[in-house]
Amino acid sequence: MDGLRGIFLKRVYEPYDESDGCRILVDRLWPRGISKGNARLSLWLKEVAPSPELRKWFCHKPELFDEFRCRYLDELRTSDVHIQAVRQIMILSEQGQVTILYGAKDPVHNHAIVLFEELQRITQIPKT
Predict the structure, then answer these.
(1) What are the boundaries of each domain within the chain?
(2) pLDDT tens-digit profile of 84-123?
(3) pTM for this one?
């Protein structure tokens, strides 16, 4: 489980831990093979996931990941819906620990990694 300033990242299939704090699923689609009870979510924040068009274009192909990252970052930084969802995660992280959950099998080439990096970038920007 990776973490930064009270925000952690892990697959939704990993066991629940009390230290997870607020558990936020950031996938647009419900992960296969896991019940809502076993997921033990605090929030399902579909709005922060890539748009359906971008998700379908990427189709979890590692060779498309660099371009996917650029396109998803653009969504996160310019789409009002995405901006609000990112703000919601940041507000929750100020109240306590947050664990961002994703269902992708590939732990390197997925949207949650990009989101996590963007949250890390935001937390490093000096507040004025």
Answers:
(1) 2-124
(2) 999 999 999 989 999 999 999 999 999 999 999 999 898 8
(3) 0.90
